[in-house]
Amino acid sequence: MKKIINGVESLLEESLNGFAKAHSDIIQLNRQPHFVTRKQQTKAGKVALISGGGSGHEPLHTGLVGSGMLDAACPGQIFTSPTPDQMMAAAEAVENEAGVLFIVKNYAGDVMNFEIAAEMLDCQHQTVLVTDDVSLPKDHSTGRRGVAGTLIVEKIVGAAAEAGATLLECKALGERVNDNTASMGVALTSCTVPALGQPTFEIGDNEIEMGVGIHGERGREPMDLTSASDIVEHLVTAIDADLKPQAGQKILLHVNGFGATPAMELYLVYELAAELWQQRGVEVERSLVGNYTTSLDMAGCSITVTLLDDELTQLWDAPVHTANLRW
Amino acid sequence: MKKIINGVESLLEESLNGFAKAHSDIIQLNRQPHFVTRKQQTKAGKVALISGGGSGHEPLHTGLVGSGMLDAACPGQIFTSPTPDQMMAAAEAVENEAGVLFIVKNYAGDVMNFEIAAEMLDCQHQTVLVTDDVSLPKDHSTGRRGVAGTLIVEKIVGAAAEAGATLLECKALGERVNDNTASMGVALTSCTVPALGQPTFEIGDNEIEMGVGIHGERGREPMDLTSASDIVEHLVTAIDADLKPQAGQKILLHVNGFGATPAMELYLVYELAAELWQQRGVEVERSLVGNYTTSLDMAGCSITVTLLDDELTQLWDAPVHTANLRW
Questions:
Q1: CB 3.0 to 4.6 Å from B261: which of A231, B29, B161, B257, for a disulfide?
Q2: What is the β-pairing status of strands A283-290 and A250-257?
Q3: How high is the ipTM of this complex?
Q4: Residue range(s) defining the domain that contains residue B40
């Protein structure tokens, strides 16, 4: 295993310390238990948005705390759910007379721990479950996984909360974004979790893993390594079959790198995906290309599409000021 | 070679098309020859800043075109200098009655082609050569290489040009930033250039390459894989020996990922480097952590330090709006 680390035990703490120091103008880090909040106190009456999950997906979620987006993020150990005490302490720190909305990626550990925290909270609270990964069927036993679409839920609900939406409005909006969002990813290599010290899965030199999860879960099917056009068509077809956008539909197209994929390849994927949608009469209205929901050092990427309407577009465009997403 | 591409020949064109489409609010792409300019025309009398170099380092330089930074960027093929016709066409497109400043990383091909272009330009022009890589001695035959410090030169001179600095003021400022900037990198893996189809250099499972260049040039010395603290101390010591910051000196600390290094590791490197400077009484006043000057899919990172004064800090803080750097 080749990594720039001092030790498996100290990595998260040292990395969070660096993150907090590098972005001390935007966020602050609580250490026991770990959570990140905005530096600036919000106005009373603003719904507090809290997300979290295993580390290793940075900038999700700590890099998305700030004005116009999250109020707090709870980082677990790598690919490990944060614990209920983190979520409760974060909620106590940022709740501001309008309740707490948990935004949770659909993984058993995350769901369970956010539920435990929610049950113990004294304040109003709601949860939005993100389930955008269409590589699993809709009726999969534990439901679909939450992947790169989570950022889109967080950005859009973040803008609404900033503009004064109530807790129930934020929850309904988050669920609407989730319903209108679909993602699928492809891996060229596995990632290597430091505590494990070896790749999460084996993959041949001429193989790719279609429908891979963001923790290196094996995907829908291993495929032979093929052209970018074939790979993108595969991803777009799966997303299209799920969202069924009509001609004239406006979309947000997000190409997300898993961590080790050069920007040139991500923009190539974006180009090919945009072309395919445009051929179907779908209008690519907004774009986001880069490493946002990563899987440590995995090579590969995912495509996410959100069906836009005027309200969602306006909320997407609203100002955001976080460590890793700004406009 | 595992890459998401259609072919070696088409990669740059397809990728630039995607980049132009994804950021059509900020930049526009000229296709024959290739260069990227700002979408918005600048005010007459603003010095035009142009950079360029081989592709594969994204977001450098195309992702840094926009308000407060570059006026144009000329992308060559991967790790290959752009040609003089690109630079001349870019200069003609963006020159706006105040002359052109070329910002050039010190590589033989880049230097030669920018010189040829400069000789053929009708307008006023100057060049700043970036030579921040301290892994080579100062008296190295072709001079030191230009690496991640280039972004800092571009940002600071970009702010000055936006504020109305003259061509000679921009050149002098760029040279001052370069003189006060030092970088060194370390690679854990090689990158793989698509046209070559195999890693640029061999590196053992327990080896790292200290002082590596951003094209996968072998570095100062191969070393055994060691702790993050040892690696960072090595880099910081080399930079410190070059810049010799005194106690109380304010610095900009930039940790740059080469492409395949997880954000967690980059923030860990930042934390360790910041600690070492602070122990020496140096004040880390500004920070930048992320993938900015990449080497395709190389794992590793570089540390860059710029000695700040009030003027440089103010110019660093000035608003910037590009595809990949914004505040």
A1: B257
A2: parallel
A3: 0.97
A4: 11-180+316-322
